[in-house]
Every structure is written in C-alpha cells, then in structure tokens.
Amino acid sequence: MYIRSLAMAAAIAIAAPAAWAQTQVPFALDWKFEGPSAAYFAAIDNGHFAEEGLDVTIEAGNGSVNTIPKIATGAFPIGFGDINSVIKFLDQNPGAPVTAVMMIYDKPPFAIVGRKSLGVSEPKDLEGKVLGAPPPDGAWAQWPVFVAETGIDASTVTVEPVGFPTREPMLAEGNVAAITGFSFSSVVNLKRLGVEADDITNILMADHGLQLYSNAILVNTDWAAENGETVEAFLRAVAKGWADVIADPAAGIESLLERNPAADAALEEERLQMSIDQNVMTDWVKANGMGGIDAGRMAAALEQLGQTYAFQNAPDASLYFTDAYLPEGGFKLN
Fold it and tell me: Alpha-carbon distance 181 to 168, whole Å?
C-alpha cells in the first residue's frame, strides 16, 4: 500500500506541471452561443486547445461594437468580431491596441432578408416597400453601397428603425417586407417563427457588389507582442475546431448544446451549415487556405467602406490585419 501510494504521488507530481502549464485565455465572442460558435466549443471538447497548452473560456457577446473595446482595453486578450467595426474603431481611436489576425468569414453574411409573399424576391423589389433595419446593424451600414451597386431607387424605400429582438418578428408578422441582418441569423430565426423556407428571400450583399470582409479573430496587440506563440497556438486550435464542424456539423452542435441547452439543435445545425457554405468555405479559402486576406480585395473594401463612412485618418490596411501569426498558405480545412 505504501509503495502504491508513493507511485501515485510520483505520478501526480509528474502530471501536475503539465496541468499547471496550461495558459488561461479568455475569448470574447461577438454574439450569442449559436450555430457558428460551435467551432470554438468543438476546439475545447475535442482537445485542440488543450493540446496547444491552452485553457480557453468563452464569453458570449452582444455585437462587435461592444466586443472590440473589451479587447482594446485588455479585458480580453483575444476575441471574435467584424473587421469593418475594427477599422472604424481604430480610425476613431488611433493607436488602440487591437487588430485582426485570422479571417473567419471570408464572405460577409450581410444580407437583405425578405419574404416572397410580401413581394421581395430580388433587390429591385425593395422599391416601394418597408425595410426594417436596426440602426447599429452591420448589414444596414452597408445599405448605401448595396443601393449603388444594385441601382435601387432608395428614395422609394421606407426604412423603419427596429430593434434586434423585434427585427425577425416584424417580418414574420408582415409589418415590414424585408430586413437587414446576418443571413444565417435572420433566415433561421424566421423559420423558428414559423415562416416557410420557400417564402424567405436571402439576398447576400456580397453577391451584389459588396467587397468587404467580415468577422475575424481579433487580438490585443500589446498582449500579442508578448505572447506570440500563444496567439499562434490559439489560431491552430481554432482552425482545427472549424475543420471538425465542417466534417461533422451535428457533433459540433452537440458541443454547442452543452453551453446552450435551450437551443434548437436542428435550427442551429442549419445556421452552422449556412455559415460554412456561404461565409467560411468560399472558393478563395478552398484555394488559398483559411485565415488570410487578399491585399487587392482589402484595398477595394477600404475604398468601398469610404462610401459609407467618413474616415478621419487615411486608411491603412496594415493597421487592421496582420498575417504574422498564420502559417504560410493559411489553414487547409478540406
């Protein structure tokens, strides 16, 4: 018994340093625990963060506008949010320590979501209709570019300011003919409210001239400068988490349900699959790997962003994104 106790004590002594070596990394999401966030929970449950020596905790958010200051102030060293919001934040707060290090949504989910039964099947159908748009909504911010690219006569569109919680219910009830939002959020929410799938029109702005990028992994640059290996390890684990949910979305949703038991598994799996098909696994990502950006497209995106936002300072792409923590060629997901 004494010998066995010594052996157990020795084993614990050997194992303990490995456990103590786990680096604590709090991670701030931009939104609630919904389908697309399953990739990060899969990275925890499948041991990818642990294999990298990381102990990651994830906090839900309520929009990129609120997530970015959490990272810039150091409350969170790393997070997930819209790069266009980062660009505006840095323009208004020069020198703030935040930047994007890994592009996740290569194609933005900004969309106009309407109902065919209310006369909306294509962009020009919005003329003469009522459009519900939350003022802080990222998709609504791109409305002027969408109008310019599609030739819509915006003077004929009645814009109704709505809240995020009332956006889809108003469309479901027919109080507006279309709304702005993230495609995978609004489409799935409408189905949850009883709107038939064949009555929903999902008009992705990126299919109508929008060049912008979207959500990315963000870091506090001061922290990243001192913890470069941790950033690289985090990104490797995130890529593996996305590879897992791409290969088996249902298993990814099981990880999500552990954190959000009230979620509808079928709808959240549909939401996850939409994000994979429309935003993550684009042709560019399939050819170039996940995580990086195209310099030419970023230049075009900044020019396009300038159509809807008055820059106080000359835009500089190097301030908003760095590939310094990515492997050459990005992460291959398939």
Answer: 9
Confidence of residue 186 (pLDDT cuts 50, 70, 90): very high
Q: Buried b / exposed e across 136-156, counting CB within 10 Å, b at 16+?
A: ebbbbbbbebbbebbebeeee
Domain ranges of the chain: 22-106+212-320, 110-208
Domains 22-106+212-320 and 110-208 share a fold: yes
22-106+212-320: CATH architecture: 3-Layer(aba) Sandwich (3.40)
Question: Residues 99, 86: contact at Cβ < 8 Å?
Answer: yes
What's the token pair of residue 330? 């990005």
Cβ-contact 34, 231 below 8 angstroms:
no
- Give the DSSP letter string of 52-85: TTEEEEEE--S-HHHHHHHHHTTSSSEEEEEHHH
Q: Which two tokens stand for residue 287?
A: 């050819």
Query: For residues 136, 142, 143 and 145, what is the CA-based torsion angle, rounded to 10 degrees?
Result: 160
What would the 3-class secondary structure string for 183-232 be?
HHHHHHHHHHCCCCHHHEEEEEHHHHCCCCCCEEEEEEHHHHHHCHHHHH
Cβ neighbours around 85 below 10 Å, total: 22
Q: 329 CB contacts (<8 Å, ≥6 apart)?
A: 288, 289
Q: What are the beta bridge partners of residue 26?
A: 57
For residue 256, the one-letter residue type is L
DSSP 151: T
- 284 three-state secondary structure: helix
* pTM of the full structure: 0.89
Q: Which CATH class is domain 110-208?
A: alpha beta
Sheet holding 78-82, edge to edge: 54-59, 23-28, 78-82, 215-220, 98-103
In this structure, what token pair is assigned to residue 216? 């990315």
Give tens-digit pLDDT for 246-305.
999 999 999 999 999 999 999 999 999 999 999 999 999 999 999 999 999 999 999 999
Helix (H, G, I), strand (E, B) or coil at 122: coil
